[in-house]
Amino acid sequence: MKATLRARLVPSTTVTYPFPETRIPAGFPSPAEDYAATEIDLNSELIRDEAATYILRVTGNSMIDAGISDGDEIIVDRSLTPTPGNVVVAAVDGEFTVKRFSIDQQGQGWLLPENPAYPPLPIESGADFTIFGVVTRCLHHVH
What InterPro entries does the database record attribute to this sequence (predicted)? Predict the structure, then answer.
């Protein structure tokens, strides 16, 4: 699964949207509830460090079991320190890839896909490898 750089997020203003305080069920609807509306600012919800936040468009299906599909945009924060278990964007031999970062008991680093059809990628000693940033959100397209 590859990711292509779309844009760096630079919020210049606060934009708020109505945000009901109740949750919307995906099962059977709740009969009658009063929806008290507040507002939500997507910039403050999605961006922790605006100078280090990027949106990338994903191509491929290696992360579908993590909820990241072909064509989705991911929000990546370069200011976060990656830890094992994080979904990261890594540059391997000059190409971006989206995978789950892992370190095994022997200290070997891995980039793990979230689709059994794809093999794990070992992080080889001396390889041209960099973790670009940590994925914080996925903007999933509903079809």
Answer: LexA-like, LexA/Signal_pep-like_sf, LexA_repressor, Peptidase_S24_LexA, Peptidase_S24_S26A/B/C
